[in-house]
Amino acid sequence: MIKFKSVNYFKPLFIFLLLSFGHTLSAQEETKKILFVGNSYTFFWNLPQTVNLLAKSQNIDLMTKQSTAGGANWGHHWKGERNLNTKEIIADGDFDIVVLQNHSLSTIDRPDSLMRYGQLLNDQIKQSGADTYLYMTWAREWDPYMIDTIKEKYTALAEKINARLVPVGLAWNRAKELRPDIQLYFPDGSHQSSLGTYLSACVFYGIITGKSPVGLPSNLVSEDKYGEKIYLQLQTSQDALFCQKVAEEIINEYID
C-alpha cells in the first residue's frame, strides 16, 4: 500500500497561500482614502488625480476624491453653499486624510474666518476618524510678499488644531527663487499651470507617503472607462526633476 506524505506535499502550498494572503492584507492596509476640499486651486489640472498617479507609479494605492467649487472658501463648504455637500462627504466617506484648501486670499482678507472654519471643519474631520492636512497655497505672481502672511496663518492654524501642513506655497516660492522664469502660473497670475500642479503634487506625495519625490515620472497617463488614454501630465524630464528636488528640499526643511 502506498502511503502519501500529505503534510510534506501540502506544507509548501500552505506557506505559499499564507504568504500570499498576508501580502494581500498588507497591500490593503497601505491603501489610503483622501478627500481634497477646496476650489480651483485644487481642481486646476486635477491635483488629486495627479497625486494618485504619482503614488501609483511607485505601487502605492491612494484613492483620491474631491469636493470643490470655483472660488469657494471654507465657509461655503461648512454651510453647504454653492451646491457643496462637503460635511456629508466627510461624515460618510470613511477617509484617512482630508485635505483643506481655503480661498487663496483668505489669509490676507479674512484671517479670522480661516481660523474659525478651519477649526470647525477639523472638528468634523477628527470625529469621522480622519486626519486633517492643510494645503498651504502660494502668493499671487504679482505680489510674492504674500507668501509671508500665507505661511504665518496656515502655520498658526496647523499648530492650533494639530493638523499636518503641506507647504506647497513654500515650494513655489523656492522654485521661483531658483528659476525666476519657471512657468508655474496660469496666465492669470493666480491659478496654477500644469507644471505648477506637478510641483504641488510632488509636495503632497512626499508628505503623504513619507517618501522622496525624487525619481517620480515626468509623464502621467490615465484611462477613461473605454480604455482610451488621458494624458494628465507631460513635463520635460528636466522640469520634473527640478520640481521633485524643490519639493524634497522644502519638506526636509519645513517638516519635522
Global morphology: globular
Instruction: Please count the helical segments.
Output: 11
The CATH topology name reads Rossmann fold
CATH architecture: 3-Layer(aba) Sandwich
Number of strand elements: 7
Query: For the CA atoms, what is the radius of gyration?
Result: 21 Å
- Report strand %: 5-15%
Strand order of the largest sheet: 2-1-3-4-5
CATH superfamily: SGNH hydrolase
How many discrete domains?
1
Secondary structure blueprint with pairings:
Elements: H1 6-30, E1 32-38, H2 40-43, H3 47-56, E2 62-68, H4 74-79, H5 86-92, E3 97-100, H6 106-109, H7 111-128, E4 131-135, H8 146-161, E5 164-166, H9 168-178, H10 194-209, E6 219-223, E7 229-234, H11 237-254
Parallel strand pairs: 1-2, 1-3, 3-4, 4-5
Antiparallel strand pairs: 6-7
What does this structure look like?
- The protein is of the alpha/beta class.
- Helix content is 53%, strand content 14%.
- It has a single domain, classed as Rossmann fold.
- It is built from eleven helices and seven strands.
- A hairpin with a 5-residue loop joins strand 6 (219-223) and strand 7 (229-234).
- It is globular.
- Residues 1-29 have low confidence and may be disordered.
Features:
Rossmann fold; 11 helices; alpha/beta; single chain; about 260 residues; two-stranded antiparallel sheet
Give a summary of the structure in a few sentences.
The chain is α/β, with parallel strands linked by helices. The protein contains 11 helices and 7 strands. It has a 5-stranded parallel beta sheet, with helices on both faces. Strands 6-7 form a two-stranded antiparallel sheet.
